[in-house]
Amino acid sequence: MSSIIEGCRSLGMATREVTGASDLIGTQIVMEINLLEESYKALVDTGSMISIIPIGVLAKAQERGFDVDTLSVVPKAKLRPVFDASNNRMNFEGAVYIQVDTKSGHSGLIPFHISPTKEAEVIIGTNALSRLGVEVSINRECKPKEEVNEVNKGKHVVVMKRLYIPPHSVSLVPVKCEGDLGNDKERVIWPCKRGVEPGVYLIKDRETTILVFNTGTDPLILKEGENVGHWETDKWHDQWGDLNPLLSDEVDHELSGNERLQKLEKLLSANTEAQKLDEEVKLLLKKYQETFSISDRELTQMNLVKMTIDTGECAPIKMRARPVPLGLRPKLKELLTDLLEGKVIEHSKSEWAFPIVLVEKKDGSIRLCVDYRELNKKIKLDAYPLPSIEALLQSLSGKRFFSTLDMCSGYWQIPLADDAKEKSAFATPEGLYQFRVTPFGLSTSPPVFQRLMNTVLGDLLGCEVFCYIDDIMVCTTSKQRHLQLLEEVFQRLTKAGLRLKAQKCHLLKSKVAFLGHVIDGDGVHMDPEKVSVIQDYPVSAANRQATPKLLRYGFLLQKVLLGLLEAGVLSLQSDFVEEVVVLGKGASRSISEDEGHDLLGTSPQTARCGCRQKWY
């Protein structure tokens, strides 16, 4: 009997090296499935109440380039004990939710227990059979054992009102959580319907809003009262490295919680005039320190959306690699190595290829830019509108407290779809590579990221929170309101899996730089650092006389506006009009070279705009 047991695996008594069916050994029941972007022959085990995936399968998927960090993971400490047929407790490293597709067209988000083995045998248990279209037919009369899940009973998450979601779109869906939620405000919601995103949600009066993605070609209709998942009190766990024993020999250079918080506070304090953070801001950082990235190694990818590159029926475009100076070859090789280790790029065998351009930064390092001009000519454009910078700046009237938040390599936080990766390929002297994340330089990258940010921030955007692609500003008239909005923004970014770059964030300040302007309680001003480049630019003797004339034409707009005001066509009672009058009168006379250079630092928006007053 012991020799038979040695060949068994898991609950299903999976026997290896079967030479043939006999009275003692039956045939294996297998089904072809697709998971983690790979096909497998999974063992169908009707004697197992759980589905099992070996850690080796996950590790190989990671080696192929699959981003395992996007999977929803249940930590080992939260698992209930599982025993095999011999009543021995089984060892699992946690559980993971994986999308499984079958050849028959059935699919579902299946929870798998992770076994600490390097095998490649996936086991499908009874917890997944019905969702994958597998039916067990028993001829003789018997009754199946019914077990009511007391843990999830009464914890349904239901839709509050009927909602229509068009194809290839995302929607915020109001839902209600049934059952006793207790005093805690945060709950983990696990979906039972495809398209619903799992995650930690803030519950208020048993209600919250969840993200639902319709990636299909047909409309998705959610009915009122429809169950879309259940809530639990588990803590969200998304650190894949903690569950991967195959990577345990790697050196962990991560800082401890307190060390990381201290470094985060130090980075943000450097952006303040007093080199010190407000105490209430420190409390926020302690609660939401994971929202910030303190180094490039902490770059993560979110899983709400994937970037696609739609080129229609266009044939692959292959362009020759441009030569790179020998002196820059070592820097290029080092940069490519860093991008590979950071999972930003990967080696490619694509038919597509675009040249690179190396740009030197201020610190002497180089930036890798890909010339996607030919690709952009073939891409189907995304018409999603970007905010008007001028209208945005005119909405800052009367604000006293400002915070600017900058995303950590914003585009790189959005993964590329599998069929889009090969189209991002670029040729270098070191070989052919392709992006795993959204690259800079694509014509569709800005609208895709803007749509994502508008979806994440949602109803916060308006009079006090503004977002232009990856730049976020929070501006208020009171400190308490400002802290409240910051916490709400941090919550939504964390929930979406997005991170901010600590070095570029400025919190609770009276004066900040935003979108090329300086903003304070008095209004919007030109940024002296940017204007000084033009003011200090040397002018040749031949062009010295022409410069004042060119500067004069730059203020004709203000002169026209002044005429409209005097004619009564426009009416605006604010300091802004007085500023225009002064500039308009100045433009009617000759301007000296020195005066012209001074006027470059003056903008029609230097005064605080009265955006609530009538313009006509």
UniProtKB/TrEMBL annotation:
Key words of the record: Endonuclease, Hydrolase, Nuclease, Nucleotidyltransferase, Transferase
Gene3D superfamilies: 3.30.70.270, Acid Proteases, HIV Type 1 Reverse Transcriptase, subunit A, domain 1
Domain named Reverse transcriptase: residues: 340-519
GO MF term list: endonuclease activity; nucleotidyltransferase activity
Entry's transmembrane regions: none
UniProt entry tagged with the keyword Nucleotidyltransferase: yes
Cited InterPro entries: DNA/RNA_pol_sf, Peptidase_aspartic_dom_sf, Retrovirus_Pol_polyprotein, Rev_trsase/Diguanyl_cyclase, RT_dom
Protein's name according to its UniProt entry: Reverse transcriptase domain-containing protein
Gene source species: Haemonchus contortus (Barber pole worm)
